Amino acid sequence: MADMLKPDVTVPEGLDRRRFLTWVMASPTLMIAARLGLDVPEAEATEPLDSATTAMSLYLAVQSDGRVVTTLPRTEMGQGITTAVAMLVAEELDLALDQVDVRSADADPRWVIQLTGLSSTMRFLTGPLRAAAAEARARLVTAAALRWRVLAHTLSTSHGVVSAPDGRRADYGELAEDAARVLLPGVSSQPRPVSQFKLVGQPTGRIDARDMVTGATRHALDLDIPEALPAVVARPPTLRGTVQAVDGASARTMPGVVAVVPLGTGVAVVARTFGQALAARSALRITWTPGPASALSDADIRARLRDAMGPRPLPPLFTTRTLEGRFDFPYLAHAPMETQSCVARVQGGQAEVWVGAQDPKHAQREVARALGWGLTPWQVTVHTLRAGGGFGRRFFTEAAEEAALVSRAIGKPVKLMWSREDDMRHGRFRPASHHRILAYLGPSGRILGWHHRAAIPTVAFPHGFGDALTALAGQVLPEVTSAVFFALSQKLPYSFGWVNQELRDVAIPVPTASFRSVFTSQVGVSNEVFIDELARELHVDPVALRRERLTSNRLKAVLDKVATEGQWGRSLPPGVAQGVAVLEEWDSAIAHLIEVDVTGETPRVLRIVIAADVGLPINPKGIEAQLQGAAVDAMSTTLSAGIHIDAGAVREGSFADYRWMRMKHVPSDIQVHLVRSDDRVGGVGELGYPSAAAALTNAIARARGSMPTRFPILDEGV
């Protein structure tokens, strides 16, 4: 599991720390398969392979028309991985970016990992992609050399063409079939050194941008599956409530209604249009059994979390003062722009689903389990689609399970849609939490220790970390899996003497899921806020304290960058202040400086300065977009957005009352500075959230003179 959290996939010159197995596949053109994570002799790198027996990470094919197609065994959810994958392939093959097609891979037990999470996609795929593309280039050059009877090393490649010194040229499409028969490349098949990159590392527009803004991208509900019928589900008023009795007589007689299907999660209505299905859903008369959280509201949950704190531990020897901080975080909905949806066709002991899932193999298993019949995951085909956001929500496959059950019941394909209200009130949530941090101070303000105890309801990981073993552990031992993930992921990057961070798992029957940055979205945020409180207690500058105590040179570098670019410490008007925070996670380091004005009715963010070291920045423009989006998420959850539980029911039902930031709240000045190291590929998708939330909180604390301890800060619902 530790390897899953921190894969050793780096991109130094020539990939000399790790080799990646590549194979030539049986194909009329050149197809290369690659698998990551194996140290093998170079001589084994081009053995022919039967793809039915070996777990691959990706496939790359050079087609007869010269275009290159590569599979993407992860889910594009708007984070830009499609463009990054295309850039890596184009770089190694000397192609124009528009000559590369990237296609999502279906769920396949042979794949090593298909989980899109843990900021792992480009960390895992960069090495195999480069190895496969470099292998293809070497074979194409060798095929041309054999055709022209010249030395391979005298040939060059550019824009999909192999050229000889005498002017002879052949495009990749012409050479693809011959390249597939090459026994041993006549030139090196090692990826190029980073110093020779022309495309990777340059700000690049997304290859799918036009399709996104014109509506040409295809999500689940956009698919034209023959005979697929719209379906919606009536859901209980409380979380995980169940159907006690249903009267669907009136609904069945309404125009266009095809069927009313009871499910474990509610009652489905199938009709000719979604409008007809929604109208009939409103006509259902259902008696509900309350869910297991029906006796709980926000105050009860907070009390349970606080009660889990227990007594203070004994302080280290020579402690003269103990500084304490308490923090409360709310439940959060993921609220992706595309709600849960799925197309399913179940016929003759086979199931086929089209869904945007963050772990397609988990979707396979869950659909097979829901359908029963002794169905195996191999009898379920999962077509992975582009998803409109995920953030952890799409690890869970309720829509796919419901769609498959409804399709089986009516004998036809269905398009099942969750409404926004369904998704907000019956989805899964980042759990609420309560934190107690103790900083132990000795004579002369010496920092002797740090103790952070976090009371957090179990975070559900039934999908595991991309493999069957951890998925089984996540289902059978959820509390243990949650605790292990906490222990592996939560680090304090400061030299503070005796440091201890521990999780108190609290059983609360509200469905949970990992959220952007998982535990760090609470633990890391509260740590960085309390660092500022510690600086105030010691009467030192918070940037100076961090710089003195940080154990990571990468963190010091990004902190120095934001302090310089943000002009830390300059004179500001009354009510205006700056805050900083840092984070090192997912093989990346980041710092935020945020400037805020609290003179108005609500705090107003004036400027955000970000510095990040993500190793090799494949597409700086995509990284900038990711970090800007994460900063807006952090603004939202720090200031105004949170979920409230009232007697087991979620109060918020849409963006009208789940108060996410609007464009008018976003500062015009958001700077992103990349501090390049190029010695690895670091994660980005989750990186930008925790330190942005903490820096904003610290800015508000400096402006107001008191540390916020309960989030969202502007919560009016309690």
Automatic annotation (TrEMBL):
GO molecular function, one term: oxidoreductase activity
Ranges for domain Aldehyde oxidase/xanthine dehydrogenase a/b hammerhead: 214-292
Signal sequence segment: none
InterPro entries named among the record's database cross-references: Ald_Oxase/Xan_DH_a/b (IPR000674), AldOxase/xan_DH_MoCoBD1 (IPR008274), AldOxase/xan_DH_MoCoBD2 (IPR046867), AldOxase/xan_DH_Mopterin-bd_sf (IPR037165), N-heterocyclic_Hydroxylase (IPR052516), OxRdtase_Mopterin-bd_su_IorB (IPR012368), TAT_signal (IPR006311)
Pfam families documented for this protein: MoCoBD_1, MoCoBD_2
Superkingdom of the source species: Bacteria
The protein, known as: Isoquinoline 1-oxidoreductase beta subunit
Native source species: Pseudomyxococcus hansupus
UniProt lineage: Bacteria, Pseudomonadati, Myxococcota, Myxococcia, Myxococcales
